[in-house]
Amino acid sequence: MTGAWIPLAAVGTPLLTGIVIFLLADWRVALRTALNLSGAFVKLVLVAVMLRGVANGYDYSVRVAIVPGLDIVLITDALALLFLTLSAGLWALTTIYAVGYLENAPHRSRFFGFFSLCIVATTGIALAGNLFTLFVFYEILTLVTYPLVIHRGTREALAAGRVYLRYTLAGGAVLLFAVAWSHALAGPHDFVAGGYLRELGTDQRLSLTLLFGALIAGFGVKAALFPLHGWLPAAMVAPAPVSALLHAVAVVKAGAFAIIRVVYDVFGVEFAEALGVLGPLAVLSAFTILYGSLRALAQDELKKRLAYSTVSQVSYIVLGVAVLGPLSTIGALVHLVNQGLMKITLFLSAGNLAETLGVHHVHEMNGVGRRMPLTMAAFTIGALGMIGVPPTAGFVTKIYLGTGAAEAGQWWVIVILAASSLLNACYFLPILYSAWFQPQTAPWPHEHGTGFDAKATLLVPVLFSAAFALGVGLFADTPVSPLEWAKLISQREFGYAR
Amino acid sequence: MTTAAWMEALLAAPLAGAVIALISGRRAAALVGVVTAFATAAASIALAFAVSRSGVLRYAVGGWGRPLGIDLYVDGLAAVMVAITGVVGACISVCAAGYFAPKPTHADLPSDKHDRAWLYWPLWLMLWGGMNALYLSADLFNIYVTQELIGLSGIGLIALAGGSAISAALRYLLLALAGSLLYIVGVELLYAGYATLDLQQLRDRIDANPSTFAAAALMTAGLLAKSALFPLHFWLPPAHGHAPVPVSAALSALVIKTGFYLVVRLWLHVLPGLAWAHLATLLGVLGAAAVFWGGVQALMQERLKMMVAYSTVAQVGYLFMLFPVASVPEALPGALLLAASHAAAKAALFMCAGSVLAVYGHDRIRSINGIGTRMPLTAVAFALSGISLIGLPPSGGFAGKWLLISAAFAAGAWWWAAIIVLGGLLSAVYLLRALAFAFLEPPIAGFGRAPWGMEATSLVLAFIAVGLNFAARPLSELLNAGAG
Fold it and tell me: N- or C-end of chain B: fewer Cβ atoms within 10 A?
């Protein structure tokens, strides 16, 4: 197939960038930044080419045999491109942000090297064409994110790193076992729309149910499903760009994305329903949604509050997957993008507050809207989106999830969505209130500089991501929106006519 | 050159090199050693290519043939082992050239002992020649002789470090003698029964009677002791933990594998007719016990080098989990891939420990803060070889474990898969515990320098361990091309 080099190049570009950056001395700021930005740009161009091709029915799959019968497969179906586009776009934004954020910090080459390798892993996960490939890149993602979690090298960071590894490596071990098991049951098999395990029938109900459980447990660690979410708040000790890109987007989304693949392309959603495993998954994700929100309420540290909010929000995706029907599927898919845009906006704004004013806690935020109006405007867009206020991105998700649940006759899901929105409002609106309507009550903890708002390298990416988070909601009905792409996936790959 | 010529070269080169190194003395021994090492490594790789091209070969040295002459035999399995020894051996030689160079810069080799350091070269080349001869021998008695050669040169090498290494060397000597004794008694029994010690003739003549089984059991027990399979591992950590770094690397990475290889050869090639399912399960259970015992012990070590040594105890366990699932085709390539990546990764880890020891004067895990900043090459080598030992992708350790796990599922024995997976987690715990300290800020100041070549060689070996991820296919092909 001509064009097979494009997915390989999409994996190779950040890999090459990362390797070269590792070899650079820390003080080569300009060269490193140029490399980073050109890598991100090349990646975006490649993704754009593939998007256009895939929309027109083109296929760029590529296959490399590891042992006879076992292949590393990269595919470019519409679902792969959804996740790939998200990661490529946000890589570009976050790179710019990180250059500004880490100015004069030590070990920058190490940081940006691993940062690029994270994108390699995320790209591989997005393009993975079978369970084995997905597993390999999923494990690589664990390995390359660990050095970023412990980047500061403090004892606190190392402790957080230990927690992170405990969860992710244990999850990886379960996965290794589960993937090998799936091969024993059905042989190595590429992802197929509609699933390939359904050929086994429901005779092997017990082993298939256990296999489903093992796969969800393995991928659920990164998706921060309760009770496997404990690493996420701990990992907030990492620098802000890491929290933003990895913990809001790449890592948790890798888990959620993998769960989508397992449900739709390994088991097949109808077969999973027939096995009776979707109900428990829906209940688990619904519980995670409420639990995450409740824990978020109790956090005073801003990043921790956002982290628990992530725990809650990512489970929207899983919930949408677990509820049968096209509308909730579209809701899940579109939330993959929407949550990423909103959460990165929130994390980058929080990073701006910390970097410019030293504000790390919610109680220090009184009057911060007047001091940093643009940052807080972005934060507000993200927060309102999380609550689901129209016309933001979050509103689109909730509409689709809600109508999907109604269509499937699962009314309790709507109750969960409503309760979650209420809780979201409870932990976001007080922040907005004190930031905009309260006067400043105490001096800022560590004010750096007196300029207007944050410095440009920090401010511009935040404004861009906020604009996107608003835009995907405002322009949801246009042909270039993530919503349209999610509809395309649901039609083309999951066989839903609509 | 033909397969036969490469085989002769693989025996002649290291042994001749050992003699020349001994004659040329202190001044030129290292030069002779390194040149010989590269020649031998090249011949190892050439042999692998020759076997994959033209298959199994049996060759009578000097044309004498059996029963009088010495016969050599190479198949895919032997070629793989020779190739592993060749590549890792060459890297170890480069490291040793720096380590044993005049002007001691390392803490564990006292300067008054230093005048004997050049003896490393004849001993090491003899050891290497012994290993090649063991892999290429066609009969059980020659294999006995090569084992003695390996054992004696190994003891000499451990004793080079002096001090506490002497008692470790003596312990190793006792163990090697006991193992050899068990082995040779078994060999005698077989000879009494079948009047031959030739591997192929035995294979054709063997029948399942109690005396054959007793012979095989005795030989196996001897070999298990030499490969340090739990519970016969007690001699390994002190010996490998106290020896000079290039010696630890060679013993842990290469010498241990000879015992494993002989068990494979014996049970899978010579005695496949025996009903040995129970013994296979026992070997697997011992392997599983080794994985956990070695892992737990490694976790409790305070010193990096001792941790690395205990990790070998655990890693040997994985290899022996081959036997219960050996009927599945991908099991043997899996175990060999694990053996190969362990060889590279373990040699790399010993060198990392050696570099740390040289720079800081100690290798206490709790006080290696910031070696990631001070010694980035070593930290990267440590991380990469750790990834392979844990079995995370992409690495040779991962590919090997994957094949073994698949084999376990194919054999309908998922519990072996579960043990392999859990063992990987355990190794992750102790390796990452050590690695995390390397990232701890602020870095502590070092006051020495790593011997030249040590850091670079460890990095090369670590990259080999990771690169072996892609070796599964060529390795299976080589095994099939040269299937005995």
Answer: N
